[in-house]
């Protein structure tokens, strides 16, 4: 099959799976997950074929796989849409296909396929466990299957469809289509257990917060489309002439060039989607969804999509950049990224929920990528995007496995007050869940940037090296600090969860999860280590040059001008080593002796800062008071009650009242005294008209039909009269 | 057959009336017979419209399938019908929604005969507006449409509820709503009628095309003792306000939530689906061609009103606790985009940006017809079962009615403008067109500002849609609806049949809008460039 045809077909299997499950197979759990997994397996296979064909194409980048059709007529012209895979697309396709496939497989075990139906489970709430009797007559409580199992796979398949659409798009409009479909799916899946008020609120929060970004992005799209007449990647981002024109056109907005303004508007979309400060608030709450969804949102799809888009529009953002001082647009992007990286890391340090720590680490790591893009480090950002996708998917699935193991313990003891997500209830899971432990360790070390072996080290080091080489000192220092905290909270998490002794009975009875969950962990941990080796800088001491820096060569081909690798320096490398190893060591030292019932050892030394961090800098409260409350007031009180009901309707009612008053006046001051009494009574007309009125009143039957007949008759008579006498 | 093909438009137009007169002779207790006759009768114009669609050639300028009969020879008014791409789209929408509305009305048990007859009269009234090529005929049908709707609201509206107009003055809500609807539209029509009469007297014709040509080129001298430009400006506003009332545009919109809330379900479907389009159609068919210069001059005002409608429509919708009123206000918000597109086009008539904006506006009319009709029907489905529209009385109904829930989410997403569904395409085109007009030639003008502000409305569209879903479907289950006599029943087959065509079209238009947009696009090019 032609490569272009395969690319066109890539998003379709998950979409078909969605419709098949919704319309036909939803009553059969086994059939539904088979359909869904077969669909993503097919898309995975197609993606691999495309990826390897891309590898085998010479000068890939100059030559790309692309094909398009007319979609919307726009006057005498057409808006085209189509598919395209270039080096960036190929590499994105690679990690998206792998992570999605693994997450689907994992979901089977996570939702307890094969387990009995729950005793009191009902749709919209997480399963609570089922009682079974074994052959000896003993009763056990075991995990029960998710009641909306089929629906979950349907939504997840639609999610995968959205991401594939986004990746194979050759233009920003269909990218936006995939982007929004994912927004819907994240809404549906975060609110999957919609019976929980927290999940319902989190779903709305996720949708609305990202939508703030989306409307700006839509403006950016409209602006770009108006300015260039197209939304196609190649026609804009691979076109020197268009880019120069956009860079030279000035706009009245903050003195930005058209390129800068459009870039920033689109970037606001990313702030929402990739949960950058100040629109980061939805992502931690997104933890309300089932864990595979968290992995989907945090690694494979949503947040990666945001960064992917900024990487896409990189040529636009940097169109008026000459390689040294950052332009205004770039500075904004770099600032948002850098600040977010540090800001989220500080919050992660003080969280107790195993998934929340990971959520904030995602925000922070995305900040690294955004910061890298802001200072022009194109390759480094793309590299970190890919490695992060692998190790973060691994970590989320690993945390899901931990929670699953803990739930096993909870059902065993029957104490439902124990929160299976709270790390303080864990400890010592290393021996009970060995596969989960070792894979989580690999993922955690990759996140912390453990030197040389993990993928996270190579990609993060490249960002720091770039900041150093271009003398962005503030960014370098801030990111280093964030990296130090990352290593620290990662080790804190690993220590609290897996090391030491179990702090609760539930942790003692935790249990390794089934193969459908552990196999994806093993596969992803291979990438969390191995993927770093494809991007080792050429001049790295000793091992540099042993393996060619394939990533740089390959992805660099996406741009018109191949970016130059930065010169090697010992300074950023030393920083990388110190922060990673130092952070890990610190985390272990502080948390290794935590016993059941202890408070966080950080609580005392941090003082008032600790509750500040634990409460996420009080951003939720801030928004509730300064945004949501005023907006609700504006809607309910100002717009509806005051403007519509009081002012506008009040004016109308005034006219009505005026009419009534006039009528009243005519009746009581003219009709009654003059017409009725004077003419009617005194002059005797009353005695003539009353009987006639009585007679006529019989025609007032109150039935619509007879009124209609009357109306039609009168109409006809008048018409006839007019016709005969007037015209 | 030959007669039908040569008189296709009159057949489509008058078939509902003939059917209504036939139903008149049915015994009133033969409810099933009346219902099915009405449904079948409404399917005939739909079938003929599809035939019309296939026979129509979008690339030819001017009107097709024209029919002309003597009507009022003394004042040169003729019964003149015809379709172009614009009116064809609207005819298709009307004839499509009508059978669905009648099917949706199968649960009506009170005065079924009169109800069905009124609906069929209503169809003729609306189709007449879209098909008329004579200004006087246009006006006649414009007014005829009012009467059945008045009675539908007044007689079959929700029996509960009161509205206090001022202290001590309480009226029943459906009387209030129907009267408000009637008087409001009549008030707008007054100016329109005067302006039409002036044109008729001035040019001795009511023919649409002839008038557009003569009137727009009539630029100098005095008229009625006033400067022509002044007269034209006044006449422009007379037309504009009449249509703006019907769209409805902020601040003339307050009749809409009342009428919608009180109307029977099918009445709301048609009201939102078609009647509002009459106003927008008036802008496209009469205001822009008759007053190109004035439209351009006042485009800023139109854009301002459109933006207000978008923003305040969304705000007001979010501020509701009544499910039906929430959906009603969403119409103000969505129709605002139609007017925004029209305003943008008025400002830069003939440019590519204007065509894009107009494409968006017309497609938005069609799309809103589908999604609003669907939303009102879904509100009706749940109201019929629970007898309440109070959002706070629902909650967590999803597990009880999973199919209904799925359909509601789907339709809500169409209303929200989710990409992949129809609303997104038209809203994107409007925004793109308006933005393009906003900085044509490197000069930034007010259209940019209005479009940017309109984005706030788009954001709140999300807020009110999610509020609806959140309050009805999500959250802890309200046990009241789970057991016993109040137990909520799932959406039934008839109701799914009403929704299915809407949902299929919503999806098809979101993915592949070309078949419809091509006709619209050619019509806009032929009309306005």
Q: Which key phrases capture this entry?
A:
heterodimer; A: 727 residues; mainly alpha; two-stranded antiparallel ribbon; 4 strands; B: 529 residues; 2 domains; two-stranded antiparallel sheet; 72% helix; globular
Please tell me about this protein's structure.
The complex is a heterodimer of chains A (727) and B (529). Chain A has helices at residues 3-9, 12-23, 29-55, 87-110, 149-168, 172-190, 197-228, 233-237, 240-248, 258-273, 282-285, 291-300, 302-312, 314-317, 328-349, 354-374, 378-413, 429-432, 434-448, 455-469, 473-498, 505-508, 515-530, 550-556, 570-591, 603-606, 609-614, 619-682, 686-697, 704-726; strands at residues 65-74, 77-85, 130-133, 139-142. With 727 residues, chain A is mostly helical. Among the domains of chain A are: 615-684; 695-727. In chain A, strands 1-2 form a two-stranded antiparallel sheet. A two-stranded antiparallel ribbon of chain A has the order 3-4. In chain A, a hairpin with a 5-residue loop joins strand 3 and strand 4 (139-142). In chain A, helix 5 (149-168) packs antiparallel against helix 6, helix 13 (302-312) runs antiparallel to helix 17 (378-413) and helix 19 packs parallel to helix 23 (515-530). Chain A is globular and about 125 Å long. Chain B is mainly α and 529 residues long. Chain B has helices at residues 2-6, 8-24, 31-55, 85-104, 112-131, 135-144, 146-156, 173-203, 208-216, 228-246, 255-262, 265-290, 292-297, 299-318, 323-347, 352-386, 402-416, 422-438, 446-472, 493-511, 514-528, and strands at residues 64-72, 77-83, 162-166, 169-172, 222-223, 226-227. A two-stranded antiparallel sheet of chain B has the order 1-2. The interface between A and B is large, with 68 and 75 residues.
């Amino acid at each position: 099959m032609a490569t272009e045809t395969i690319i066109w077909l890539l998003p379709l299997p998950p979409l078909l799976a969605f419709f098949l499950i919704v319309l036909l197979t939803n009553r059969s759990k086994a059939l539904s997950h088979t359909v869904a997994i077969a669909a993503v397996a097919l898309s995975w296979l197609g993606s691999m074929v495309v990826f390897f064909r891309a590898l085998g194409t010479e000068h890939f980048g100059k030559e790309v796989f692309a094909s398009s059709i007319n979609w919307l007529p726009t006057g005498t012209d057409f808006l085209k849409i189509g598919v395209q895979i270039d080096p960036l697309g190929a590499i994105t396709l690679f990690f998206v296909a792998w992570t999605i496939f693994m997450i689907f497989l994992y979901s089977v075990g996570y939702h307890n396929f094969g387990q009995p139906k729950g005793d009191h489970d009902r749709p919209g709430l997480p399963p609570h466990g089922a009682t079974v009797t074994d052959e000896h007559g003993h009763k056990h409580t075991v995990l029960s299957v998710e009641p909306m199992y089929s629906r979950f796979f349907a939504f997840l398949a639609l999610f995968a469809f959205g991401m594939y659409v986004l990746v194979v798009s050759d233009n920003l409009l269909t990218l936006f289509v995939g982007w929004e479909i994912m927004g819907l799916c994240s809404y549906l899946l975060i609110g999957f257990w919609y019976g929980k008020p927290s999940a319902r609120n989190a779903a709305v929060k996720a949708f609305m917060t990202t939508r703030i970004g989306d409307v700006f992005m839509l403006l950016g799209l409209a602006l770009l489309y108006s300015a260039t007449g197209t939304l196609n990647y190649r026609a804009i981002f691979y076109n020197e002439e268009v880019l120069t024109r956009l860079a030279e056109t000035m706009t009245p907005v903050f003195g930005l060039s058209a390129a800068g303004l459009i870039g920033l508007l689109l970037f606001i979309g990313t702030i929402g989607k990739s949960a950058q400060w100040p629109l980061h608030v939805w992502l931690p709450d997104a933890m309300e969804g089932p864990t595979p969804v968290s992995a989907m949102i945090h690694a494979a799809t949503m947040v990666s999509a945001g960064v992917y888009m900024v990487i896409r529009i990189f040529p636009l953002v940097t169109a008026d950049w000459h390689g040294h001082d950052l332009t205004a647009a770039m500075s904004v992007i770099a600032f948002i990224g850098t600040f977010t990286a540090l800001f989220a890391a500080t919050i992660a340090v003080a969280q107790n929920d195993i998934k929340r720590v990971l959520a904030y680490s995602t925000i922070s790591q995305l900040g690294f990528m955004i910061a890298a893009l802001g200072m022009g480090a194109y390759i480094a950002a793309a590299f970190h995007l890919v490695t992060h996708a692998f190790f973060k998917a691994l970590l989320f699935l690993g945390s899901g496995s931990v929670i699953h193991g803990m739930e096993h313990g909870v059902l065993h003891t029957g104490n439902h007050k124990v929160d299976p997500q709270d790390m303080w209830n864990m400890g010592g899971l290393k021996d009970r869940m060995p596969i989960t432990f070792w894979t989580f360790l690999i993922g955690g070390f990759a996140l912390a940037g453990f030197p040389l072996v993990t993928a996270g080290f190579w990609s993060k080091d490249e960002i720091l090296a770039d900041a150093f080489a271009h003398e962005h000192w503030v960014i370098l220092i801030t990111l280093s600090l964030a990296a130090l905290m990352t290593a620290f909270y990662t080790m804190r998490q690993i220590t609290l969860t897996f090391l030491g002794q179990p702090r609760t009975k539930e942790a003692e009875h935790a249990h390794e999860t089934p193969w459908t969950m552990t196999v994806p962990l093993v596969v992803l941990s291979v990438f969390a280590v191995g993927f770093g080796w494809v991007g080792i800088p050429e001049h790295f001491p000793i091992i540099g040059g042993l393996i060619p820096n394939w990533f740089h060569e390959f992805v660099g081909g996406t741009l018109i001008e191949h970016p130059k690798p930065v010169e090697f320096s010992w300074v950023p490398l030393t920083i990388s080593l110190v922060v990673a190893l130092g952070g890990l060591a610190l985390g272990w030292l502080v948390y290794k002796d935590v016993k059941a019932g202890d408070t966080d050892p950080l609580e005392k030394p941090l003082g008032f800062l600790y509750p500040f961090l634990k409460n996420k800098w009080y951003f939720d409260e801030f928004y509730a008071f300064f945004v949501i409350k005023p907006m609700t007031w504006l809607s309910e009180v100002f717009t509806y009650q005051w403007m519509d009901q009081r002012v506008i309707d009040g004016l109308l009612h005034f006219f009505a009242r005026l009419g009534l008053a006039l009528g009243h006046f005519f009746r009581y001051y003219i009709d009654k005294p003059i017409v009725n009494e004077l003419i009617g009574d005194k002059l005797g007309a009353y005695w003539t008209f009353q009987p006639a009125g009585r007679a006529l009143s019989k025609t007032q039957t109150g039935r619509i039909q007879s009124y209609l007949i009357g109306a039609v008759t009168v109409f006809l008579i008048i018409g006839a009269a007019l016709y005969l006498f007037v015209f | 057959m030959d007669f039908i093909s040569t008189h296709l438009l009159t057949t489509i137009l008058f078939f509902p009336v003939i059917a209504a007169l036939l139903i008149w002779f049915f015994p009133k207790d033969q409810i099933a017979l009346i219902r099915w006759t009405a449904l079948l009768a409404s399917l005939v114009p739909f079938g003929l419209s599809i035939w019309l669609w296939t026979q129509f050639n979008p690339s030819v300028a001017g009107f097709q399938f024209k029919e002309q009969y003597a009507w009022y020879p003394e004042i040169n008014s003729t019964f003149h019908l015809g379709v172009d791409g614009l009116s064809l789209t609207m005819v298709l929408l009307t004839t499509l929604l009508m059978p669905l509305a009648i099917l949706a009305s199968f649960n009506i048990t009170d005065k079924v005969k009169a109800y069905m007859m009124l609906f069929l009269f209503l169809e003729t009234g609306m189709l007449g507006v879209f098909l008329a090529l004579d200004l006087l005929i246009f006006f006649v049908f414009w007014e005829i449409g009012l009467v059945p709707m008045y009675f539908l609201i007044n007689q079959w509206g929700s029996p509960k509820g009161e509205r206090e107009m001022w202290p001590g003055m309480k009226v029943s809500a459906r009387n209030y709503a129907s009267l408000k609807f009637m008087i409001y539209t009549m008030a707008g029509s007054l100016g329109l009628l005067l302006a039409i009469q002036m044109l008729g007297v001035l040019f001795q014709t009511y023919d649409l095309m002839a008038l557009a040509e003569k009137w727009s080129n009539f630029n100098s001298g005095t008229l009625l003792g006033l400067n022509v430009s002044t007269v034209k400006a006044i006449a422009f506003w007379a037309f504009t306000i009449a249509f703006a009332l019907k769209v409805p545009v902020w601040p003339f919109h307050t009749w809409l939530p009342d009428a919608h809330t009180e109307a029977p379900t099918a009445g709301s479907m048609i009201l939102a689906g078609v009647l509002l389009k009459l106003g927008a159609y008036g802008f496209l068919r009469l205001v822009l061609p008759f007053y190109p210069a004035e439209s351009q001059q006042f485009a800023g005002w139109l854009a301002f009103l459109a933006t207000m409608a978008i923003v305040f429509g969304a705000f007001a919708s979010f501020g509701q606790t009544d499910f039906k009123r929430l959906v009603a206000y969403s119409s103000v918000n969505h129709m605002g985009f139609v007017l925004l597109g029209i305003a943008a086009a008025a400002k830069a008539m003939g440019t590519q940006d204007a065509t894009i904006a107009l494409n968006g506006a017309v497609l938005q009319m069609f799309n809103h017809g589908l999604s609003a009709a669907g939303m009102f029907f879904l509100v009706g489905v749940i109201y019929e079962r629970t007898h309440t529209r109070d959002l706070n009385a629902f909650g967590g109904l999803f597990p009880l009615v999973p199919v209904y829930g799925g359909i509601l989410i789907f339709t809500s997403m169409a209303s929200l403008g989710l990409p992949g569904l129809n609303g997104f395409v038209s809203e994107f085109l409007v925004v793109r067109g308006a933005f393009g007009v906003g900085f044509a030639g490197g000069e930034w003008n007010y259209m940019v500002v209005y479009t940017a502000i309109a984005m706030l409305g788009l954001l709140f569209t999300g807020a009110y849609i999610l509020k609806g879903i959140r309050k009805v479907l999500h959250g802890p289950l309200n046990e009241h609806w789970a057991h016993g006599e109040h137990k909520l029943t799932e959406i039934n087959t008839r109701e799914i049949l009403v929704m299915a065509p809407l949902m299929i079209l919503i999806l098809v238009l979101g993915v592949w809008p070309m078949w419809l947009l091509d006709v619209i696009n050619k019509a806009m090019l032929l009309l306005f460039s």
